[in-house]
Amino acid sequence: MSPQDRIQELTDQLNYYNDQYYQHSQSVVDDYTFDKLLEELQALEQQYPDAKRPDSPTSRVGGTISKEFATVYHRFPMLSLGNTYNETDLIEFDNRVRKGLNGDGYEYICEQKFDGVALSMTYENGLLVQAATRGDGVRGDDITHNIRTIRTMPLRVKEGRGNATSSRSSVPPLFEVRGEGFLPLAEFERINKEREDIGEPLLANPRNAASGTFKQQDSAAVAKRRLDCFIYSFLSDEPVFQTHEESLITLAEWGFNISPTWKKCTSIDEVMAYIAEWDTKRFTLPLNTDGIVIKVNRYDQQRELGYTAKSPRWAIAYKFKAAAAATTLNSITYQVGRTGAVTPVAHLSPVLLAGTVVKRASLHNANEIARLGVMLGDTVFVEKGGEIIPKVTGVDLSKRPESARAIEYPTECPACGTPLVRQEGEAHFYCTNEKHCPPQRQARFEHFIQRRAMNIESLGEGKIELLIERGLVEEPADLYDLTNEKLLGLEKTYPATPVVHADGTEEPGKARTVKFGQKTVDNILTAIDRSKSQPFGNVLFAMGIRYVGSTTADRLVDYFGSLDALMAAPLDTLAGVPDVGPRIAESAFAWFQDEDNRRYVARLRAAGLQFVSEKKVVALESDSLAGKTFLYTGTFTNFSREAMEERIAANGGKLLSGVSKKLNFLIVGENAGPSKVAKAQQLNVPMLSEDEFMAMLG
Ligand SMILES: NC(=O)c1ccc[n+]([C@@H]2O[C@H](COP(=O)([O-])OP(=O)(O)OC[C@H]3O[C@@H](n4cnc5c(N)ncnc54)[C@H](O)[C@@H]3O)[C@@H](O)[C@H]2O)c1
Ligand SMILES: [Zn+2]
Predict the structure, then answer these.
(1) Cross-strand partners of 512
(2) What is the ipTM metric for this complex?
(3) Ligand 1 center to 446 CA (angstroms)
(4) Does position 261 have pLDDT exceeding 60, yes or no?
(5) Domain covering 629-697, topology
(6) Which fold has domain 3-51?
(7) Residue nearest to ligand 1 atom 29, measured at CA
(8) How many CA within 13 A on the CB side of residue 90?
(9) Does the active-site annotation cover 463?
């Protein structure tokens, strides 16, 4: 292929990766591969400038803006960062800085390169007035209402302490801060556990999950995922600070969330030491990072060095290659989850990876095994993102031993022998023996006792296992037949699992004894009794219907008010409930048709659980809004949120949760969400002012 053709090919390929990455929150290739291809394109374009295309990814910031949000123009362009994976380039960068500053002394500030989504926040008179994504660097999406859900993002800046020693105690009337929005790892794990629990496909990684969440329309749904943001820069028309360091210190005083991991370095050697220090320490942070950002500290020097079309000349990102290690795949076991999904787990020869010993890694599903082409006995690469369990990412075919054996994916459930099935479009095989498959049964109990369900967590940590084993319980309804007599004195010792240390030595680990003393039994019986007053939404969630997570359960409860109404509802009605849709509706409908499930529900009812919503029923004032659907956005002079919702209900109207074709009216208050308004315009949904709405009430 000619170099010119290669330029065409790379441009198309990289533009496609960018589109997937920024528009669809998906990484088709890993960052290292992407960056190497970009480097190749850059080198070719330098050699053959005539072949360079105007849409080349080397001279543009990767993202674009979307139609779903209002567009905002950035006051200062949001650029990318030059990056490198090696120290030689870093020394070259340092040389360029020195040359550029003509022998003037300089310092660097080193920061973590947080792996999330770039955000820009504008403050006017101390108030957060606008927040936007980077978009194409010039224009971004207005996602102010989503950013307001971030608890660490000040809506109002804390005024300086009035120590009057510098101009920095007073907040300038107009400024912008930039930061990285992210999903904390613990939150990512929580969401995925919940998704697994209700049978939803898992989110691929925290970065993609964060970028997908920031682009959601419904900020109530965004608020449920506890996004966070680290601020790392300050911009204003009037000079406020002399150095980046000063801005970081002051922004923290103003109430911004500044990661305390930054450090001032006076030489490139100190920078290297900082990089070495964080190479493994970064895995202790609450979020993923993928490198270190090195910035010239003084603002006047930053201005002197200036910018390329795409990135500042005064900063560079040193990127860590994903932490990877090679080891042997010894065996695979298959785990069965609550919904019967079978997940293969790779058992490896212990290997040190980013400071911890890894013995197990995730292989996701049968498709993934086929995609990797992996065999037992192979040398495999394992990689660690921030996730707890690392993943197998490739095979070293050159090391395949003659004894390597093909992986035979089980055709029967490893726990109960039921033939496995796979539905069209599903990645997992399932064991359909929902009721009697032991791991599914145990997981059903664990689901039932969790805090957001019946809150009987004193039964955790091996106790359920023991109750099942002794034949005291078969299904969660049996919990309500437990007595002091049946429980007191039960005991079992679980064997130790060996612990492998970083130096390869092994320790036998500790055996664990589960014991039902009087105090434990009292706690359990009290919690079981108290669970009878858990609200109906929790009970519905506890039943463990596939796809019915706790939010969906609450929506169904809000709509139907009682289990009888829910069970009597035809499929169409179920599917019409806001945020439910056909897939969940079918799952719930089928579940309630099943004889066994009906019997189970009857037992829970007999045990005295809540099957009716306690939500107060609003007395009907008029039917002036009958048959009409409403949504409101912003704040109102005459109504609080609750009052607004009550008036709609009391006059026969129905509240929807988002702008759709089903919406009849959008009531627009002050500070209305621009995305809701834009969507309503797009769908031709009429908008009402507060006065117009009051007139409709009559
Ligand atoms: N795998 C793929 O398919 C694919 C596709 C497109 C892009 N990418 C990756 O994304 C990179 C391009 O993304 P980019 O343009 O956002 O550049 P970048 O990620 O290399 O660097 C710029 C970004 O770093 C972030 N950042 C994090 N911590 C920071 C800090 N302390 N100070 C300043 N900025 C900080 C900001 O969001 C900023 O916008 C590529 O180099 C590649 O690695 C991957
Ligand atoms: Zn089974």
Answers:
(1) 494
(2) 0.95
(3) 40
(4) yes
(5) Rossmann fold (3.40.50)
(6) Helix Hairpins (1.10.287)
(7) 113
(8) 23
(9) no
